[in-house]
Amino acid sequence: MFPVFEDTSEGRDIEAEPDMVLYDGSTCMLCEIKSGHHINERDIAQMAECDKVAIETAEAELKNAQVQEKTEYDGTVTAVESVIVYQDLDEDYIAETRQESDDFCDALDRLTDHAVLLTQDYGGDLRVLAGEFAAEGALQSALSAGVSLPENPPDKIMLTEGMEPEILAIAVTDIWGEQALDHDGGVEVTREQVRDFFAPQHNVNPGDLGLVFEFLQDVGACEEVDTHRYEFRREHMSTILRVEELVMEQRVEDYLRADDQATFEAFGDSDASDTTQGE
Predict the structure, then answer these.
(1) 156 lies in a domain?
(2) pLDDT digits (tens, 9 = 90+) for 218-268
(3) Which domain of life is it from (predicted)?
(4) By C-alpha distance, which of 176, 181, 265 is closest to 218?
(5) What range defines the domain where residue 27 resides?
């Protein structure tokens, strides 16, 4: 789940939901990540919401996240910064578009009223394009100087501590499911192999693992070939590649609870059915 910073006390109405939060013991940085180069109204609204987050709100959410118990930091915040990163926006594009579009200039100015604008490119730097940080600190200095990025980033799967079924479904299909593309005979895996793979860093709940494989079978991402042994094959690939999208639309337990969603097609049509019933 994305972190949410909420504060409705004393007439405040704040609900910021950045893609990620960076914290180094003093600065709490709320980060939004975008592909492309188009600055739209939603981007500006998101950063305006992040810009409302006060130090005390940030400290409260870090406390809720148990930062003091899980890290070397005590949860103290001296500055809150909002940053937004665009994959395909760079200095040349800004210079050219500023001359051609007053709307772009207006959008850029309104965005940087609330956030520092950065860009990133493989083999280049994560660097500041426009806007200024509100305070000085280690994170601010690093980004102002530019952070070198690898040309080919490593392919890693980061799992949340809770190991929700949705995260586990994505991990299983990424690690074992996509291997089926290169294996004519398919790829088999057992529940015990999955648990061993993630141990000892993550203690996978057997019940959650059972739910995940039941879900993956129902949507057509794999088949059970023996007791607690499952096979991914090439013909499953179209569904395997959509598992992340599916679990973002509906939780695994909600899907399995629904009597009329026993197939992949029905799962995909669930939003349309709900709309029709509401009408």
Answers:
(1) no
(2) 999 999 999 999 999 999 999 999 999 999 888 899 899 884 444 445 555
(3) Archaea
(4) 265
(5) 5-148
